[in-house]
Amino acid sequence: MTSAAPATVNTEQAPSSFEMSCFCFKQWLKSSGPYLNLLGIIGFIFFWYLFTERLKLPWFNKLPGPVEVYKEWVSDDPAYGISLYTPEYYHHILISIWRVLQAFFLATVLGVPVGLFMGWKKTFKDYTFPLLETLRPIPMLAWVPLSILMWPGREASIIFLTFLGSFFATVLNTLLGVESIDEVYFRAANSLGAKPKHVFFKIILPGSLPFIFTGLQISMGFAWFSLVAGEMLAGEYGLGYLIWNSFIMVQYPVIVIAMVTLGVIGWLSSAIIRVVGDRLMQWKVREAA
Hints:
Layout: H1 17-30, H2 33-54, H3 66-73, H4 87-120, H5 122-135, H6 140-150, H7 154-179, H8 183-191, H9 196-234, H10 239-248, H11 252-280, H12 282-288
């Protein structure tokens, strides 16, 4: 009497999200992308140094060079009062970050649902889309007088201006995400008797997530852009105020310091959104891997 062969058990487990993220990061380091990115930054600094401090071209004679900016930035006793060692520098940064976080949170909480419902319900889109497209092209600076009139205090008006730039980008990218979902999924759900809430949470929301997070990255960039415009005109603190006040006070190295700080923080903000998006969309990470 022969005994049956024991069944084989597959002990392999699907890689965790952390392992997939590490794998993608290693693959990115092996590619030429990060080194070309670094080379581009070095090249920009080189030409900046060449035009302003070596050749001293007439178009750039008033601009501070990278060496001058660097010395001011890392100085224990900065000539213009702003460096890595001054508390005022970090105060401006924290004020700007707090304003952007408030505006971005409001834009996300309001913009994502509006975009989802605009893509899901045609009637709702017919009501709201013309108004959205009418308001969206209006520049942020044009909103400044109305924001000061509508909102008491400078802080609320700055956050409102920052919110506007972020809101429109969030809504439009979310709407595009819903409209990009294949109609086959909706027909299949209806044929299986799915309820509207199931269609929303099982098809619309996950299907539009890639576009939502792309929109949030764009939205974060618009938030910083709008924040600077608001702080320049109505702020007392923040990086935008620091840029404008330094221009008035003829403190040109401080302008560059604030601009570079803005760029780095904005890049980090978008990177954090990308990481969160990868955590929520592991199927996209596995697809890329």
